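Hypothesis: this fold can be encoded by more than one sequence.
Test: take the structure tokens below, design a sequence, compare later.
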């Protein structure tokens, strides 16, 4: 459990898209955002504003060498919304190939990416979230999105009499809540929410949450619980 938290007043460049963790993003990913979402924010807590605020999508990514899945970071651009003081506009960019993986859905194969957004103080000043650090100036995770981010590269299709009909979902970004084993897709006007965890946040916890989300999503698609095929 955590408590709602808000960001201080600052903004990142609208076209910012840098790598977090492994350095893998190039100038080709600095183009227009692929999608946008708002964040539900409240007044800053007693922790104070980060000195170098950054927002990273921590993707569940495939390792080309081991076949195992770990986290791969990618910065998002964000700034205060013109509509509401307590909302922020967040620009999202298309995830790189290593942030996407194949998912079997019955006889279909989808290609997706799943992530959580992590707000952090970039104390190491390298525009990436360093999970493993041994100094006093390590990056500090400040808040984590309650909801999950889903990017659909290749969607699974509904089948009728053994033939494909319509996609179970469209390609692009989607946002889901996942509570008590129940998936719910956020509406187009629903913002993400960010909470401050009561304890420390580590890579393993987020990795486990993303795996659980993927398992639930795979089951829901296979049983047509989300799309009504």
């Amino acid at each position: 459990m955590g408590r709602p938290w808000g960001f201080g007043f600052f903004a990142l460049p609208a076209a910012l898209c840098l790598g977090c963790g492994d350095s893998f993003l190039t100038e080709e990913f600095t183009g227009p955002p692929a999608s946008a979402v708002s964040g539900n924010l409240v007044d800053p807590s007693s922790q104070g504003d980060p000195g170098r605020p950054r927002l990273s999508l921590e993707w569940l990514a495939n390792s080309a060498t081991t076949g195992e899945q770990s986290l791969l970071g990618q910065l998002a651009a964000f700034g205060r919304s013109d509509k509401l003081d307590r909302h922020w506009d967040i620009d999202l960019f298309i995830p790189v190939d290593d942030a996407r993986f194949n998912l079997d859905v019955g006889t279909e194969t989808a290609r997706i990416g799943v992530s959580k957004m992590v707000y952090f103080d970039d104390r190491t000043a390298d525009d990436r979230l360093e999970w493993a650090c041994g100094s006093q100036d390590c990056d500090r995770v400040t808040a984590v999105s309650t909801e999950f981010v889903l990017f659909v590269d290749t969607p699974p299709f509904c089948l009728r009499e053994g033939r494909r009909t319509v996609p179970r979902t469209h390609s692009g970004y989607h946002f889901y809540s996942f509570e008590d084993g129940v998936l719910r897709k956020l509406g187009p006007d629903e913002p993400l929410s960010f909470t401050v965890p009561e304890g420390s946040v580590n890579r393993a916890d987020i990795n486990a949450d993303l795996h659980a989300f993927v398992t639930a999503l795979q089951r829901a698609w296979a049983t047509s619980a989300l799309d009504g095929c």
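Residues 1-31 have pLDDT under 50 and may be disordered. Helices lie at 203-222.
Hypothesis status: open.
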